[in-house]
Every structure is written in C-alpha cells, then in structure tokens.
Design brief:
Strand order of the largest sheet: 2-1-3-4-5
Radius of gyration: 17 Å
Number of strands: 5
Number of helices: 9
Bound molecules: CO-5-methoxybenzimidazolylcobamide
Largest sheet: 5 strands, parallel
Oligomer: single chain
Strand content: 5-15%
Helix content: 40-55%
Shape: globular
Length: 209
Amino acid sequence: MSKIEEVKAKVEAGKAKLIPGLVQEALDEGNSAQSILQAMVESMGIVGDKFSAGELFVPEMLMAAKAMSKGVEILKPHFAGQSTSSYGTCVIGTVAGDLHDIGKNLVSMMIESAGFDIVNLGVDVSPAKFLEAVKENKNVTLVACSGLLTTTMPAMKETVQTLKSSGLTGFKVIVGGAPVTAELAASIGADGFAPDAGSAAVKAVELVK
Ligand code: B1M
C-alpha cells in the first residue's frame, strides 16, 4: 500500500494520532499536498456513503473528521503564502445549526493563500454574529458562508439577507457547501458561489477585484 493509500485508509478509520506522521511521510515520498488532500476528501466521501448506508454512525464520522483535520494541519504550510496581493479581510463561518467545519476550513485556507486576511468565526454562526464581525473588523471585503446540511439552507438564506439588508457596504458574500448550487446562491441573494475550496479562492478574488 502506498503512503497516500495508507493516509486515505487511516482517515476513513479515524486514526487521528497516526495521520500527522503518515501525511508527512506521504509528502516526503514526493506526493503533492494537493493529491494528499484529495485522498483525504475522498475518504470523507466514503465515510458519508457508509453513514448513509447505516454501516457507520456519528462517532465514527467524528473520528474521521478529527483525523482529516490533523492531516490538514500538516498540509496547511504547503498551501500558504502563494499570493503577494492583499484583498482585504474575509469573514468566514459555518451557518447556524451546522457543525461541519472541514470544508469551511479548507475554503478558509485557500482564500487566505489567495491573499485575504481571515476572521474565522467557527461553526454554528448566527446571522447576527456574521454581521457583528463585518462591523467589528477592518476592511472586510468578503463574507464566506459554508453549510453542509439541507436543513441549514434556511439559515444560510437568513444570513445572506441579514448581511444584504444591513445597510453596510464594501463587501461581497460568497456561499458554498455540498447542498449549495449556483441557482440556490443566486436565489438567496449571494454575490457568488463556488463548488469547492480551490474555486472558492478564485471566485473570492474575482468578487473583490
Ligand atoms: Co455530517 N452529514 N452530520 N457530520 N457529515 C454529512 C454532511 C451528510 C451528507 C452525511 C450523509 O448522510 N451521507 C449528511 C447531510 C445530509 C443532508 O443534509 N443532505 C450529514 C448529517 C445528516 C449529519 C447529522 C445530522 C447526523 C446526525 O446527527 N444524525 C449531524 C448534524 C450535526 C450538525 O451539524 N448540526 C452530522 C454530524 C457530523 C459530525 C459532527 C459527526 C461530522 C463533522 C465534524 C466536523 O466537521 N468537524 C460529520 C461529517 C464528518 C460528515 C461527512 C461524512 C463529511 C463532511 C466533510 O468534512 N467532508 C459528510 C458526508 C460527505 O460530505 N460526503 C456528512 C469533506 C469536506 C472537505 O467536504 O465539507 O463538502 P465539504 O466541503 C467541500 C465543498 O462542499 C466546498 O468546498 C469543500 C472542499 O472542496 N465547500 C464550500 C464547503 N463550504 C464551502 C463554502 C464556500 C465554497 C465552497 O464558499 C463560502
């Protein structure tokens, strides 16, 4: 089994303690950070499918998520500092009622590497908290809202509408996450949508330029 396959298997098995070492070994073997990240994302897809099929449960999903987060920590320096431009501050969070943070953190990492300062509000962020962060932080040019649950799409809509009706200007709103589509994004009044972390960074720059 190659190191990258080992990373994939151990993330799926939720072996968080083994992951930092394995990810480092996979990098040392010459695998790109991007390919290791892709392998871990695939593991989470498998975990999700097994959850849907009733083959594993919330604790196992949580362990796999912890394992992936450990791996992302090792990969983060490999994505950092690719841009010399400064596009202002991006306030990012997962919308109210939603605890999923891996995708949001990947998006944050990629937007940061594109040249934004990041204010990461975490998960289960209320519309009021997003708004407060726009008011309290300097030079907010972008608000990024992530959501993974179909049940939290109303919270995403409320967040976008709260921001857009606040009277505050100078920032754009980008939304994303598995249940979000370009059509949904447009229908709730967001300025932009991206299907994955890489394209979120590209879209972010496009929106604020
Ligand atoms: Co949950 N969960 N979960 N879960 N979980 C999903 C999302 C699910 C699809 C699993 C399934 O049923 N197959 C399902 C949602 C179904 C639906 O709504 N349609 C689900 C469910 C049902 C639940 C619970 C309700 C389960 C329960 O309690 N019965 C519960 C809800 C808790 C809550 O939030 N209130 C729950 C809980 C959890 C854990 C806490 C155990 C854990 C999360 C831990 C954590 O994040 N720290 C967890 C996990 C791990 C998953 C799966 C397995 C993996 C999610 C993940 O990290 N993916 C997931 C199944 C799946 O994704 N296939 C599942 C990897 C990540 C890189 O991808 O987050 O999609 P993703 O991000 C991508 C894109 O979506 C996009 O870019 C990212 C990277 O390219 N993107 C953006 C994300 N945000 C973006 C923002 C942007 C742009 C792009 O612009 C701002």
